Amino acid sequence: MKRTTVALLGLLVLGGCATDTPLPEQPAMYVNMAAPGAVLDTQAAATMISQYRQNNGLGTVVVDPALVKLAEQQSQAMAARNKMDHDVKAPLGKRLEGSGYPATVAVENVSAGYHTLAEAFSGWRDSPPHKANMLKGGVTKLGIAASYAPNTKYKVFWTLILAST
Questions:
Q1: Is the distance from CB of 33 to CB of 43 less than 8 angstroms?
Q2: Does pLDDT of 23 surpass 80?
Q3: 67: closest CA among 124, 134, 144, 139?
């Protein structure tokens, strides 16, 4: 009898674990940007890149809304032209100057075809010139964007701008 009671209590406890508890949201770095309405978590990107920089003995970066806007414009321009290119709109220096952004140091990574932040980050990390940009000394601010263009070759166009003022 005692064993039956203990077994029933055990089943009730386990049954409580099987309730309709919502699963946690997908981590921001794995959100599929190749979907209508997908929103890039710029803070998650800044955290990811800051941790990478710290692991390499460098300082962190913070999201700068003006750089996010410039990154969005670059990603949208690439998507509109179905072309991955730093100069599709204008070279970075001219875009910064034209917006009035007072950069003392600035670098840019662009890419296309990666569907998640994790994929874009990994692609940049594994490319020596892009890695060098993410590990640029003296940068303190970041702007990042991904633009979805379903009728293009790459589907998602990425821009990362790192700068200091």
A1: no
A2: no
A3: 144
61 and 45 Cβ atoms separated by less than 8 Å: no
Q: How far apart are CA 142 and CA 154, in angstroms?
A: 24
DSSP structure string for 93-160: HHHHHHHT---SEEEEEEEES--SHHHHHHHHHTSHHHHHHHT-TT--EEEEEEEE-TTSSSSEEEEE
CA–CA distances in Å: residue 45 to residues 104, 121, 143, 155: 22, 9, 9, 20
* pLDDT of 8 above 70: no
Q: How many CB atoms are located within 10 Å of the residue 18 CB?
A: 7
- Does residue 122 surpass a pLDDT of 50? yes
Q: What is the pLDDT of residues 46-67, one digit of tens each?
A: 999 999 999 999 999 999 999 9
